[in-house]
Design brief:
The protein is built from two helices and no strands. By secondary structure, the protein is an all-alpha fold. Helix 1 runs antiparallel to helix 2. The relative contact order is 0.20. It holds the Pfam family CsbD.
Length: 65
């Protein structure tokens, strides 16, 4: 797991908390903030996933040559 995956996952968790708190306290702005955080976290995690996949592919290429 790389830092983008970790930070993305952490941001998604923070977003879920903000969304839940916003919903529970009838605070649409906080709920929206949570949604946005979750989307940003997923995007960052996706970047990390792509980096890991590229690293794994590079290792496979080296092994086969």
């Amino acid at each position: 797991m790389n830092k983008d995956q970790v930070k993305g996952t952490a941001e998604k968790v923070k977003g879920k908390v903000n969304e839940a708190v916003g919903r529970a306290t009838d605070n649409p702005a906080r709920e929206l903030k949570g949604d946005i955080q979750q989307e940003a976290g997923q995007a960052r995690k996706n970047v990390g996933d792509m980096k890991e996949a590229a690293k794994d592919m590079a290792k496979d290429v080296k092994r086969h040559h």
